[in-house]
Amino acid sequence: MTIVDLDADLAMQWDRWLRRRSVAAREHLIVAYAPLVKFVAGRVGAGLPSSVDPGDLVSSGVLGLIDAVERYDPQRGVKFETFATYRIRGAIYDGLRALDWVPRSVRARARQVSEAFSELESSNGRPPNDDELADHLHVSRQQLDEWLSSIASTTVGPLERALDAGAEPHTLTGEVPVVPSNVVEEREVRQVMRDEIDKLPDREKLVLSLYYDEGLTLAQIGRVIGVSERRVPQIHSKSVLHLRARMTAAGVA
């Protein structure tokens, strides 16, 4: 069992932990990889309401890191940082689930908007515009924008989590896929996701690409597409809920 591409001290600590289960080595590894927890927590926390304490995200993430150190097997051929990132992110999401930080009213609105997309697209044969969405939901355009703004904080982070907007809290702990059938299934789902993104209206498709593929912030996206920073989260929320509706129609969400 070997750990490559590490400095000598860290490689020694891994060897002590993997071969002898040295408690001191385990503690050394946890401290050494603590910056990864802060990085992942920062990414997950970006855009969450101010009521969510960043310290809570880090505390949950540390539990994920500890779990990753204890479960890591280099013979699987997965880098520890990759394995740990899944565990840390999953632990943070579990922490958020336990906090139940998304009000039920916001979840309900997210479901209503997603269902409206499905119903209107099915009946009209094309994506609905904002006025049609508002009419279908029996709200004004201003109220629809307010709904989308309130939903925005539920659709930050990785696209897989964003697609959970409106769902009841549940365990989102990430696992590194090791079973071939699971890998195939994940690839198929991702391909369906890409296919459905391609069918979205151009602006929605662009916003998702800039945010998830290019890594731009919402403020940067606003400058690219020429809208106010306040408007971008609304467009992003609408894009995610539209994609969620299409994924549901395709039977994979």
Mean of residue pLDDT?
82
**Global outline:** elongated
How many H/I helical runs?
13
Percent in helix: 55-70%
Report the strand count.
0
Our Rg estimate from Cα atoms comes to 21 Å
User: Any idea what the CATH architecture of the largest domain is?
Assistant: Orthogonal Bundle
Q: Under the CATH scheme, which class of the largest domain?
A: Mainly Alpha
CATH homologous group name of the largest domain: Winged helix-like DNA-binding domain superfamily/Winged helix DNA-binding domain
Distance between the termini: 39 Å
Reported by name, the CATH topology of the largest domain is: Arc Repressor Mutant, subunit A
Q: Residue ranges: pLDDT <50 for 5 or more in a row?
A: 168-185
Order of helices and strands: HHHHHHHHHHHHH
Q: Class by helix and strand content?
A: mainly alpha
| Overall tally of domains | 2
In what range is the share of β-strand residues? under 5%
For the sheet with most strands, the description reads: none
Question: How would you describe what is shown here?
Answer:
Residues 168-185 have low confidence and may be disordered. The protein is elongated. It folds into two domains: 8-99, RNA polymerase sigma factor, region 2, helix turn helix motif (Rna Polymerase Sigma Factor, Chain: A); 104-249, Winged helix-like DNA-binding domain superfamily/Winged helix DNA-binding domain (Arc Repressor Mutant, subunit A), CATH 1.10.10. It is an all-alpha fold. It is built from 13 helices and no strands. It starts with 7 loop residues before the first helix and ends with a helix. The protein has helices spanning 8-20, 23-32, 34-45, 54-71, 80-99, 104-124, 130-137, 141-152, 159-162, 180-198, 202-213, 218-225, 231-249. Helix 6 crosses helix 13.
